[in-house]
């Protein structure tokens, strides 16, 4: 995680004015423990592309991987600005999180090894990756590119009571 706490701002226009801002430690834990995230990228022609994926929070960034031939990888070669979302589909409980950032491809094998270990620790042996030549590798499949999305701005939408909190890094 980053060495400094983010600046926290609550927008009282959205939600219960008596609701306190969500504590960053609560939001960070929810971001780290989420099983599924939705990645939004932009196609070269400007149309949006959204896809579910798994990711890990490590060193102040969400890390994701994708095959080099997949739409999201191709989109990221043209436009690195992304949004990752996670939360619940409930209106009255939970915390929804929206992460805005710039995806950076990770190619350093030592860093990739740490990210691969984090995937396996979080998701189990089905998500075991070998590391080589600046990418993830798995038996019988092509390489997977790895991207880090350093936390720049995160929005939290509390639901019990409703609130909106923004963290800037």
TrEMBL record:
Tell me the classification of the organism that encodes this protein.
Bacteria, Bacillati, Actinomycetota, Actinomycetes, Pseudonocardiales
- What is one cellular component GO term in this UniProt entry? cytosol
Protein name as annotated: Pyridoxamine 5'-phosphate oxidase N-terminal domain-containing protein
- Keyword list, A-Z: Oxidoreductase
Matching entries from InterPro entries are given as: F420H2_bilvrd_red/Heme_oxyg (IPR052019), Pyridox_Oxase_N (IPR011576), Split_barrel_FMN-bd (IPR012349)
Domain Pyridoxamine 5'-phosphate oxidase N-terminal positions: 27-127
Give the superkingdom in one word.
Bacteria
Q: Name one GO molecular function term.
A: coenzyme F420 binding
């Amino acid at each position: 995680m980053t060495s400094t706490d983010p600046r926290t701002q609550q927008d009282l226009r959205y939600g219960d004015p008596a609701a306190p801002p969500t504590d960053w430690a609560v939001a960070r834990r929810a971001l780290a423990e989420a099983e599924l995230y939705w990645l939004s990228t932009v196609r070269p022609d400007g149309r949006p592309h959204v896809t579910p994926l798994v990711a890990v929070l490590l060193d102040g960034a969400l890390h994701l991987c994708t095959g080099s031939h997949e739409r999201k990888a191709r989109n990221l070669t043209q436009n690195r600005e992304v949004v990752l979302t996670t939360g619940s589909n409930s209106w009255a409980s939970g915390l929804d999180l929206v992460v805005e950032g710039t995806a950076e491809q990770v190619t350093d094998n030592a860093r990739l090894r740490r990210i691969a270990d984090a995937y396996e620790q979080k998701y189990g042996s089905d998500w075991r990756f070998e590391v080589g030549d600046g990418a993830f590798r798995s038996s019988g499949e092509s390489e997977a590119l790895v991207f880090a999305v350093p936390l720049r701005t995160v929005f939290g939408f509390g639901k019990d009571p409703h609130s909106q909190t923004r963290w800037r890094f």
